[in-house]
Specification:
Elements (H helix, E strand, L loop, with lengths): L9 H23 L1 E6 L14 H7 L7 E3 L5 E3 L2 E6 L5 E6 L13 H12 L8 H4 L2 E8 L2 E6 L6 H6 L8 H11 L10 E7 L3 E6 L13 E6 L3 H10 L4 E3 L6 H4 L5 E6 L3 E7 L9 H10 L2 H7 L5 E3 L21 H10 L6 E7 L4 H15 L3 E7 L2 H9 L11 E7 L6 H8 L17 H12 L3 H18 L2 E7 L1 E6 L2 E2 L2 E2 L5 E2 L4 E2 L2
Parallel strand pairs: 1-10, 1-11, 15-16, 15-17
Antiparallel strand pairs: 2-3, 4-5, 5-7, 6-7, 8-9, 9-10, 11-19, 12-19, 13-17, 13-18, 14-18, 20-23, 21-22
Helix pairs in contact: 9-11, 14-15, 15-16
C-alpha cells in the first residue's frame, strides 16, 4: 500500500526548514563538543597508582581527582580537601574534606573512601608503582565522616606535595571492591569531570561528561578522546586536518609551519622535564668512572638540542632541572671528544667498546636522540646498537627487572619530571639506593651512602636552609659520580585549536583539561 504525501503549504514549509536548520546547528554544536587530544605515548594502565609515566596520569586526571593538585605554576591548591592542619612534630596531618561529592558510580566521597584508597597503595602485597611515594605513612584514620587523619612514621616535608601529585587520586571504594586491585586498572571510577567509556590499548581512551560532577557548570564538553600518536608528523597532520583539537608534544621541527595555520594556537612553555642517559654501574665498562665521564664529554648537548629538539631545549644544568624547588644549578658537561678519548684510554678502552643503548620511548624525537648519541659516541670509538622500546618492553626489560646483577639494561635514554615540584622526587626515585628496579627507576643501579644520607636528612628536615644545603651536596656528589649523562631540559611545545580553551600543559609535562571548552 502506498502512503499518500500531502504537500506542505509555504508557511509550514518555512517552519519545517527552520526546524531542520536548528537541528543541524544543534548537531554541529554537539559535535563541536567532542574533543580529540593527540599525545605521544599510550597509557600503560588507567590505575594512577601503578604508573610512573606523566602521560598516563594526564589521561587518568580526566577521570580522577585527588585531595590537592598543582596549578599551572606548580603551586598547591585544594580539590577534594577543603583544608588541613599539621601537628608541631610534623607527623600528623588532619584533612577536612569537601562534602557533597559523588564518585561516578554514585558512591559518596568521604573519609572512608580516602582511607580505602590510601590503604591500598600502602599495602606492599599490592605491589603498586607508587608505593614508595607513600610508604612513610604509618596509618590512615577516618576520624569523622568528612575528616581524615594521616599519621607518618617520620617527618616528611613534601607530604602535601605527594598528595597533590596526579597519582594520588581518590578511587571509589565500591569500584575497588567490585573490580579488585588489578582490574581497577581497566575500570576506573573517580570523582573527576569525565567518566570512563572505553579503552582500546594503543588506540584511544574515551571518556564522557559526568553529569553529577560537583563543580557546577563543568565539564563544558561532551567527551574527550585521548589518542596516542607516537609519530610526530602524524600528530602534526591531525592538527592541520582538524582530526585533533590538541596535540602534545608538537614536532619541534614543524613548529614554524604549524604557526602559519590561522586555526591553531602554538604555545611554548617552560618545563621541568630532564632527558638523560643512565649507565648500569654494576656492569662493565660502566663500573669505571672514567668511562662514564668520557661519554659525558663525547656528547655535544647544544648540537643535540638543535638536531633532535629543533632548539626547543637547553643543555641540562645539573641533575635537577631549574624550576624544581631545591634544584642546584651546575655547568653542563662541556663537549670535548679529545678528553673523552683520553679518558677511555686511561680506563683501558683505547679502542673503544661495544654496547647497547635503549630508548624509553618510540617517538620521533626520542629516536632522533638515541641516533644522535650513537653517532657522537662512534666518533670516540664506542659502537652502540640502539633500540627504542615499546611500552611492554620497557616495563619487562627495565622497570620490572627482578635481579640487579642480571638486568640486561646497559645504557638507557629516558626522561623524568619531578611532578611533586620538589627535589625529593627528582632524586629519590632515580638515584637513591632504595630506588633500584623494580621498586622505582634507578636504572643506573647507583648507590652512594652519602647521597642516600643527604636525601634522607632533607626529607625529615623542616628547615629550608638546611634542606637547600643537603640537596646541594647530594646533587654535587651525584654529578661527580656520573651515573648519568644529563642531556637537555626540553621546552613544552603544544598546539590547540583556536576554538578550544581551558586546556594546557604544565611544567612537568602533565595536561590539565579540567576546564576544557569549545567555542559554539
Amino acid at each position: 500500500m502506498t502512503e499518500r504525501m500531502t504537500p506542505l503549504r509555504p508557511k509550514a514549509l518555512a517552519a519545517s526548514l527552520l526546524a531542520l536548520l536548528a537541528l543541524a546547528a544543534t548537531g554541529s554544536a554537539l559535535a563541536a563538543k567532542d574533543v580529540v587530544l593527540a599525545i605521544d605515548t599510550p597509557p600503560e594502565t588507567l590505575d594512577p597508582y601503578n604508573t610512573n609515566t606523566t602521560r598516563t596520569t594526564a589521561v587518568t586526571k580526566s577521570i580522577y581527582q585527588g585531595l590537592f593538585q598543582f596549578d599551572k605554576d606548580l603551586k598547591i591548591e585544594n580539590v577534594l580537601a577543603e583544608s588541613y592542619t599539621v601537628s608541631k612534630d610534623g607527623l600528623v596531618y588532619t584533612i577536612k574534606l569537601r562534602q557533597g561529592v559523588k564518585f561516578h558510580d554514585g558512591t559518596d566521597f568521604n573519609a572512608e573512601a580516602v582511607k580505602v584508597t590510601l590503604d591500598r597503595v600502602l599495602n606492599p602485597d599490592n605491589k603498586l608503582a607508587r608505593f614508595n611515594q607513600f610508604n612513610r605513612v604509618d596509618k590512615v584514620e577516618a576520624v569523622a565522616p568528612y575528616s581524615v587523619r594521616i599519621t607518618l612514621k617520620e617527618p616528611f616535608g613534601p607530604f602535601i606535595n605527594s598528595l597533590a601529585h596526579a597519582s594520588a587520586a581518590m578511587i571509589s571504594p565500591t569500584a575497588l571492591k567490585k573490580y579488585g586491585n588489578k582490574d581497577i586498572a581497566f575500570n576506573p571510577v573517580g570523582t573527576g569531570p569525565f567518566t570512563f567509556v572505553e579503552w582500546k590499548q594503543t588506540d584511544f581512551v574515551k571518556v564522557k561528561k559526568f553529569d553529577g560532577y560537583w563543580k557546577k557548570g563543568y565539564p563544558k564538553v561532551d567527551s574527550l578522546t585521548w589518542k596516542p600518536v607516537p609519530a610526530n608528523n602524524t600528530r602534526a597532520a591531525m592538527l592541520q586536518t582538524g582530526e585533533a583539537d590538541f596535540a602534545f608534544p608538537l614536532p619541534y621541527e614543524q613548529a614554524a609551519e604549524l604557526e602559519k595555520n590561522t586555526k591553531l594556537k602554538i604555545t611554548s612553555g617552560p618545563s621541568i622535564i630532564t632527558r638523560y642517559i643512565s649507565f648500569n654501574m654494576l656492569q662493565k665498562p660502566f663500573d669505571n668512572l672514567k668511562v662514564r665521564e668520557a661519554i659525558n664529554y663525547a656528547i655535544n648537548k647544544e648540537a643535540l638540542a638543535k638536531v633532535a629538539f629543533n632548539g626547543y631545549a637547553v643543555p641540562a644544568e645539573g641533575i635537577v632541572p631549574q624550576g624544581v624547588r631545591y634544584a642546584h644549578k651546575m655547568a653542563p658537561w662541556p663537549y670535548d671528544p679529545k678528553k673523552a678519548r683520553e679518558l677511555l684510554k686511561e680506563a683501558g678502552y683505547a679502542n673503544g667498546f661495544e654496547s647497547v643503548l635503549w630508548g624509553a620511548y618510540t617517538t620521533t624525537t626520542a629516536q632522533k636522540t638515541i641516533q644522535f648519541v650513537q653517532q657522537q659516541l662512534a666518533q670516540v670509538g664506542i659502537k652502540l646498537s640502539v633500540q627504542a622500546l615499546e611500552a611492554g618492553q620497557r616495563t619487562e626489560w627495565v622497570q620490572a627487572a627482578p635481579d640487579a646483577k642480571t638486568a640486561k639494561v646497559r645504557m638507557y635514554y629516558a626522561g623524568w619530571s619531578a611532578s611533586t615540584g620538589e627535589a625529593d622526587w627528582a632524586l629519590r626515585p632515580l638515584l637513591a639506593t632504595e630506588a633500584w628496579p623494580p621498586k622505582l627507576n634507578n636504572t643506573a643501579y647507583y648507590s652512594n651512602e652519602q647521597v642516600d644520607g643527604y636525601i634522607a636528612k632533607a626529607l625529615k628536615s623542616v628547615d629550608d636552609k638546611e634542606k637547600t644545603e643537603l640537596y646541594r651536596q647530594a646533587q654535587e656528589q651525584i654529578m661527580k659520580d656520573a651515573p648519568w649523562a644529563p642531556l637537555v631540559t626540553e621546552k613544552n611545545l603544544y598546539a590547540t585549536s583556536k576554538r578550544l580553551s581551558g586546556v594546557y600543559v604544565m611544567p612537568d609535562g602533565n595536561i590539565n583539561a579540567d576546564e576544557i571548552a569549545v567555542a559554539e
